[in-house]
Amino acid sequence: MRATLARVKRFYGGHPLHVLTLLACFALAGYAVAKTAVSPQWPAMLVWFLAAVVGHDLVLFPIYALADRSLTTVLHALRRSPRTRPPVPAVNHIRIPTLAAALLFLMFFPGIIRQGGDTYAAATGQDQEPFLERWLLLTAAFFAVSAGVYALRLWRHRRRTTGKRVRRHEGEG
């Protein structure tokens, strides 16, 4: 069994589970294409898909890559100064709630701009009034939880470092 796995790894260059996962992804993509191809609206779906790819890769990706680079540059500049050096990195405590808020904004966007209000009202019996408020509340909650986790990590770091100093001083006496 190990010899077979070693041969597959040597031939493919990766773990055999990677090959199986890749084949499963191709099978799923093929199934989706087969189901979509029989729909009379496949040209419109293809246009939307290509617009999403182009919109993401040529417009959105450079914007959020620049924003992330700016964030890391500012945080790196703060870490150089010993007075302002945080003991716990803050970058992921900013990235994660920002990503969650951005993805949620994409989901809520049609409701926020009240697109399809009549259809939404007919389907649910409600209006789209609370969408912006709910998105803002969820975004605030994401950042509040992230700030709480960051504060907890800072507290634990300070507790560990002061505990080490106390033990070090006790050992000197």
Automatic annotation (TrEMBL):
Keywords: Membrane, Transmembrane, Transmembrane helix
Species name: Amycolatopsis iheyensis
This protein's name: Lipoprotein
TM spans (from-to): 44-67, 88-109, 135-155
Recorded superkingdom: Bacteria
